[in-house]
């Protein structure tokens, strides 16, 4: 049933309230809209003796979601809080402030006057006091292909240069409309700026050339012109557009303009169109203006969604970890625990990762590994390198396919030792006693901070050891405390036996990725806290954390984590880290 059939009194009251405000409500719902579950009512709103026809649309999910008000931009376009393309009036910031018991008529009564007063005086004190503190970027109004993106990184655009060429690389070989801007040139093809990080990630993919031009937005009509792909191409360079339509190669046209990105703050945006001459469906060169001869070629002009991918826009979402952009981490062991740690650190913006592991990814481990089936057969470090490079291009990854203790002579062993020397912090996620003994000895000699993370059988529990304070205990100290049972062992399925999946030449244990991830994430929090300053992400104040996901009866544990702090063990001789 439709919402007005479930709550007939609600719709009746809405109409009555609209009428009480002398807005002369009229039902204008089309058959298609009604079948979809919508109701549309047109009202006449008067401001300063001028009447404005406004359509009020009640969505199928009303009243759980607010309705929408539209003032046709063909009649008038307000300078603020009015979408120049769709005509939507901004009554609320998203769904913020809307409650199911609110009537749409009351929302309109509270906000329509504000919108029109602010339209007449957008810089007034009244506007500052009554506006939501957010900008209105034009790019948010413009239409684009649903599966498209045009990533613009930190590219410097000199004010004295108004046009030129550029190159953009596809994000993957299967993409048609997803690009990253990698190089900008002037009109004489002299390089202005490049993005080495995006070139590192996508430079091997198809590169498409384009032409850019700075334009000034002086009216709402200029914004509408940006929304029309053909008009935009002509605006940028009409003769080049006509030439490219007659050619065979795809091309990009971009208008570079200033827009409000925060309230009262303006910055550069790119509106980019992908031009693809074709022999199939499309528009003829000159369509919409003067007809061209019948032999003229067809073309497709597809608008791409603008994404401001500059560092400031990434880090504003994660301000406490901005310092990670200058830090490096070495992860020893890139299995179920280490792979998740690596990906999460890259996601948080770590500058560089050294990944050390000599194993490959088995297809059957996809049920609990951080990466899926498409990476099976690859070495763990190269698989993670590939994934991180494609998804987090601002993290450099040095994959080192090496297993400590391996008697084979190659350069990987030297690279691994060098990584231990260079990284700001070392993560022992190998879950091998021999590796931990070796790393403890090595890192004590280097006085290097480290974090150790392990799981217990069945992933009933796990532990994170924070060895980042030179004045605190070392790995050998905590081992001694654990042997003495001063530091308890996390819960584990000690009754379970080892398993050997078919084709695997080593024993393993049961374990679940959705449980081990919780342990890995505690390790990530510990690592990040140790790499940031006091004003950044908070550092932990303990030396050992036991994570108990299940109790000894194999039911969910009530106490997920317990933390412990220790002095250096009096019997440990490894204190000069």
UniProtKB/TrEMBL annotation:
It comes from the Bacteria. GO terms for molecular function: tRNA threonylcarbamoyladenosine dehydratase; ubiquitin-like modifier activating enzyme activity. InterPro entries: ThiF/MoeB/HesA, ThiF_NAD_FAD-bd, Ubiquitin-activating_enz. Residues 320-486 form the THIF-type NAD/FAD binding fold domain. CDD domains: E1_enzyme_family (cd01483). One of its GO terms (biological process) is cyclic threonylcarbamoyladenosine biosynthetic process. Gene3D superfamilies: NAD(P)-binding Rossmann-like Domain (3.40.50.720). This is THIF-type NAD/FAD binding fold domain-containing protein. It comes from Vibrio albus.
